[in-house]
Each structure stands twice: as structure tokens, then as C-alpha cells.
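Q: Hi! First time doing this. I have a protein sequence and I read that you can turn it into a structure. Is that right? Here it is:
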Amino acid sequence: MELVVLVIFIFALFWFFILRPQQKARRQQQEMVQSLQIDDHVISVGGLVGRVTRLPEEDGWIGFELAPGLKARLLTVAISHRIPADEVEEDFLGESPHV
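A: Yes, that's right. Below is the predicted 3D structure, encoded as C-alpha cells:
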């Protein structure tokens, strides 16, 4: 009986400290991806900063422009977060000439 209670307690701790936060983070990431708009700026999990050029459909990827004329596909699960419009650095994204 004590062993059963101990196993249930360990499982509850595992769920509360590991599984629940992962599920919450996954849900927040999915909501963020669903709310993306064309021309939003995002950061990938690899640290690439770019602009959304295509919204995700059922295929699970977005169009991602790293610099003017340099486009790529990015899986939606690889999007770390969105950059607020007031924090976008034009020089960094290659949108203004850098001398």
C-alpha cells in the first residue's frame, strides 16, 4: 500500500513539474503561430531573425525572409517568438543600407 502511494506521488510530481509546463509552453507556441500575420518579424529557435512572408497552412511551415531577396522555409515548431513591431531593428534585418 505504501509503495502504491509513493508511486502515485512520484507520478504526480513528474506531471506537475515536467509534463504540465511542457504542455503549457507547447500550447502558447501554437497560439503564437496561429496569430502570425504577413510581415511579422520572428526569431527561430536557431536564432535567425526574419520576416514572415507566407502563413502556415496544413503543411506546417511559413515563408521566412532573412534579408531582402533571401527567402527560406521555416517549420512552425522552429519559431521561438515574435518580435513586437516597435522593437524591430531595420539595420539588423537588412532593410536599410549599411555603410
